[in-house]
Amino acid sequence: MAGLSLQSVKKRFGETEVIGGVDLDVADGEFVVFVGPSGCGKSTLLRMIAGLERTSDGRILIGGRDVTDEDPAKRGIAMVFQTYALYPHMTVATNMGFPLEMTRRPKEEIDRKVAEAAKILHLEAYLGRKPRELSGGQRQRVAIGRAIVRQPGVFLFDEPLSNLDAELRVQMRIEIARLHQELGTTMIYVTHDQIEAMTLAGRIVVLRAGRIEQVGAPLELYEDPDNSFVAGFIGSPRMNFVPATVTAVEDGRAVVAAPEAGLTGMAVTTRGQPPKLGTSVSLGIRPEHFVPAKGAAGTLSGKISLVERLGGVTYGHVLLASGSMITVESREADRFEIGKTEIFGLQRAYLFGADGIRL
Amino acid sequence: MRRTFGQSLSLYGGVLVIALAIGLPFWWVLTGSIKLPKEIIQRVPTMVPHSFTLQHFEKLLQASDFPIYLFNSMVVALFSTAFTVLLALPAAYAFFRMEFPGRNALYKTILLAYAFPGVVVLIPLYGLFAKVGLIDSPVALVIVNVAFALPFSIWMMRSFLATVPREIEEAAIVDGAPTTTILVRILMPLIAPGIASVAIFAFISSWTEFLFASVLIVSDVRRTIPVGFAGIIGQYQIDWGLLLAGATAAIIPVVALFALVGRWFVAGLTDGAVK
User: Is A50's Cβ below 8 Å from some Cβ in B?
Assistant: First the structure.
């Protein structure tokens, strides 16, 4: 087992900088998830940790050892690829034993470790099969098994569940969480699926354009986002943003208004000093934070243009008079009526500056 | 999209013309080899043999040097094929995966080998082989055949390597496999159809090579089939039956090779690897 430390790690492809100075410390045994939209550099960063991508600048330490220029095989990592990357002409047992074979371990040891890993992953019955004779979930388990037998210091997962169907994804997600509990090994997991991130991670690293936007526990990011990007990325459906103006400062709180959207004077707590009067801000409201209008701290009014009923929850898509669309969540299936103009109460909201930084 | 009758007619008509153009000469050679001499040279040719005889094959095996030519051709072709495959595979991998200065330029340059007709390099090559004492040696033919088959083989092999998903190689790298192991244990089994294609290409190129075999080999006992058989065509007389029987017998090793490596041409070798 080993911790991981990234120190001012950079990656350039020619003139283009895809990872721009990332600093991160991962404790031994931690489960850290990299999330971000496609092209944010999360997979590149993972491949740099694996050694499959050369680091242009900075240092990577695994278990306190500088591995920046080390071969992938000597870094004490194991990687599970999005596409499984199994050796199609080898049996499950040979696939799983391959890394041990490469380090010239005795056959009995290989057999024993493969059997152990197969037991953990419920693959005992499939050891003699070829990958093409397995289902997607089983293939991914073999790929995980191949990683387990190496007993690595750090497990790297590169979107391991994106090729699976929804049901299997949930199942495998639980299995990976169980595996982490059982093995207690450091795991770095890349995904663009924020549900995977929220459910698996001890800490989430939100990346955008090769830089870390925020690092924190899942609920910390949800409750206390540093900027509108993180606020919009964590939480589903995403946070609503309504342009507003600061009209007053009361008891150290900013009072904002968006008359066009039907919002008159709502006091919002800010992190630091409230912004000056007249400042243009963005009011962030999560779809699940709308309340009945009566007695609410503020209100928004708009016309319901679309309703999505998912059974447990219902989403109303509301067109505000200002032209922006917001999503409102309700537990009642018949809460929304298309075409009706309604007033929605606000209880909790976040304020973001013009640059997206949380105020 | 459904084809109209006219389209179908022209499509199948076209297929028929091509099939006949390829098949008829074969049919002519195969049937001719079992016809009596007088039927072969009959003024009105017969498509279906009216006579049957094995006398040409008897003569071929007992009274001609064919068995020697066959043996020589076999030796030259098998060695040429083996060396072509053994050299093309690592070369293609190097061009495909390894990074070195001038890789792309070199990759394009190797095909320049085909810019020169064989005749142009024949005299200088003869001089070179004479200097190192390889005239009249099958080694010279193997060298020439490999040299001419290699550039295209490398191109072919590289495109087969490109069909193997990158992640499989990366997984092997993470697993600690050295380059040679990746090539031999991971890539080779996955590009078996490519290796088979290159082998067939190299074998047939060598099997049918005439120009260099006719110049670099001097003594009759070292001749290969194409050159040895050219001797049957005399100045005043051609033994058609013998020639056709020889041509038929010469096809057999090629057919055998196809049958042997045909089972490698299995689609979907990488199934289950990455999806």
Answer: yes
- Number of Cβ within 10 Å of residue B236's Cβ equals 4
Identify which of B174, B186, B275 has the shortest CB distance to residue A87.
Answer: B186
Of chain A residues 93-122, which have a CB less than 8 A from chain B? Answer: 98-99, 102-103
Which among A46, A79, A87, A151 is the top mutation candidate for probing chain B, defined by the most B β-carbons within 10 Å of its own β-carbon?
A87
Contact B175 A134 (CB under 8 A): no
Contact A102 B268 (CB under 8 A): no
As a whole number of angstroms, the distance between CA B213 and CA B206 comes to 10
The CA distance from A19 to A8, in Å, is 10
Across the interface, whether the CB atoms of A77 and B165 are under 8 A apart is answered: no
Cα–Cα distance for residue pair B146/B188, rounded to 1 Å: 20
The C-alpha atoms of residue B191 and residue A64 are separated, in whole angstroms, by 41
What is the rounded (10 degree) CA torsion for B20, B22, B27, B30?
180
CA nearest A320: which of A240, A212, A236? A240
If you search the block for the tokens 């790690």, which residue do you land on? A9
Residues A283, A297 contacting (CB under 8 angstroms): no
- Angle at CA of residue A184, ends A182 and A190, nearest 5°: 105
CB within 8 Å: A72 and B174: yes
Question: Are A172 and A160 a contacting pair, CB within 8 Å?
Answer: yes
Flag whether the ipTM exceeds 0.90.
no
Minimum distance, in Å, between the CA of residue A102 and any CA atom of chain B: 6
Of A84, A133, A136, the CB nearest to B273: A84
Per-residue pLDDT of chain A (359 residues; tens, 9 = 90+): 689 999 999 999 988 999 999 999 999 999 999 999 998 999 999 999 999 999 999 999 999 999 999 999 999 999 999 888 999 999 999 999 999 999 999 999 999 999 999 998 889 999 999 999 998 889 999 999 999 998 899 999 999 998 888 888 888 899 899 999 988 999 999 998 888 999 999 999 999 999 999 999 999 999 999 999 999 999 989 999 999 999 988 888 899 998 888 888 889 999 888 888 888 999 999 999 998 888 888 889 999 999 999 988 999 999 998 888 999 999 988 888 899 999 999 888 999 999 999 98
**DSSP of B131-147:** HTT-TT-HHHHHHHHHH
Across the interface, whether the CB atoms of A86 and B170 are under 8 A apart is answered no
Q: CA-nearest residue of chain A to B165?
A: A85
User: What DSSP line would sit under A40-76, residue for residue?
Assistant: SSHHHHHHHHHTSS--SEEEEEETTEE-TTS-GGGTT
Which residues of chain B neighbour A136 with C-beta distances below 8 Å?
Answer: 275
Smallest CA–CA distance from B186 into chain A, residue? A87
